[in-house]
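Lab notebook, design round three. We kept the backbone fixed and only want residue identities now. Task for the bench partner: fill in a sequence for the structure below.
Input structure tokens:
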């Protein structure tokens, strides 16, 4: 495992740049939904007769609407509710609704505990879908998972001026493999994953290393990344959906120099407006 842990890390510079992985540094969001999440959803819930529409709607919810980046179970519940009575008749959908909205922990462990307690068929199918999706993701190759153009150059521009931390919701193994393969890990000081807690919690663990909050920037592509930044009172830089390459070029050429001058706050509101406007709804 990586030696670039939060516990082992010590501050080198006054500035800290936190970077999400899937959909932000790595062009992996689309491929995972196109090849894994969506097809497994259609198969598990028997939507083959409506496959084209179901896949299109799945991708819309998970990639192009403000629900992008939410936990898989949240968006699954959303589309199942939309299709209930239209293409599906799930008699115990309320069990999934209760678990998603009331359990407090949307993990495999929590899901299995809910199944043991309720014996709910929809919860069982949810677990089967999730596990099938995980297996499909494991079969993706490095050719399927590459950094966006301009990412490495931006990382190089951060070096020597700020500390760099991966702040990802991905698993540690996948994060390390992908970032090592493409030479990003060597440009980062910390590799923090879902095993280290939520993104907000990870930032919260890094701040006491010696950073002022206005010297910390979270880079992300989805609303959970904004939530993480806001929960810790730090700045957010958006990677625009369908505009990732330009976002990384602008970060390197425009906003990193501004950030290191301590003037990023002047641009935060406008960038956030542009980010919100980039989604369909």
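Proposed sequence:
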């Amino acid at each position: 495992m990586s030696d670039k842990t939060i516990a082992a890390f010590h501050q080198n510079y006054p500035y800290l740049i936190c970077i999400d992985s899937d959909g932000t540094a790595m062009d992996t969001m689309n491929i995972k939904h196109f090849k894994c999440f969506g097809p497994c959803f259609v198969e598990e819930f028997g939507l083959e007769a409506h496959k084209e529409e179901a896949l299109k709607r799945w991708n819309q919810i998970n990639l192009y609407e403000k629900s992008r980046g939410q936990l898989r179970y949240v968006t699954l519940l959303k589309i199942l509710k939309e299709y209930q009575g239209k293409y599906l008749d799930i008699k115990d959908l309320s069990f999934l609704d209760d678990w998603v909205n009331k359990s407090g922990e949307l993990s495999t462990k929590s899901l299995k505990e809910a199944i043991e307690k309720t014996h709910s068929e929809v919860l069982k199918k949810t677990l089967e879908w999730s596990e099938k999706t995980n297996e499909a993701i494991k079969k993706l190759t490095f050719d399927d998972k590459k950094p966006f153009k301009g990412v490495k150059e931006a990382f190089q521009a951060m070096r020597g001026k700020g500390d760099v931390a991966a702040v990802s919701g991905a698993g540690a193994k996948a994060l390390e493999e992908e970032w090592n393969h493409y030479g990003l890990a060597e440009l980062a000081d910390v590799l923090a994953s879902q095993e280290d807690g939520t993104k907000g919690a990870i930032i919260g663990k890094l701040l006491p290393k010696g950073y002022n909050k206005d010297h910390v920037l979270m880079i992300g592509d989805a609303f959970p990344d904004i939530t993480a930044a806001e929960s810790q009172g730090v700045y957010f830089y958006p990677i625009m959906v369908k505009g990732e390459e330009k976002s990384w070029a602008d970060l390197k050429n425009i906003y990193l120099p501004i950030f290191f001058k301590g003037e990023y706050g002047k641009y935060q509101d406008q960038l956030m407006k542009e980010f919100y406007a980039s989604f369909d709804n």
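Keep this in mind before ordering anything: The chain has a mean pLDDT of 95.
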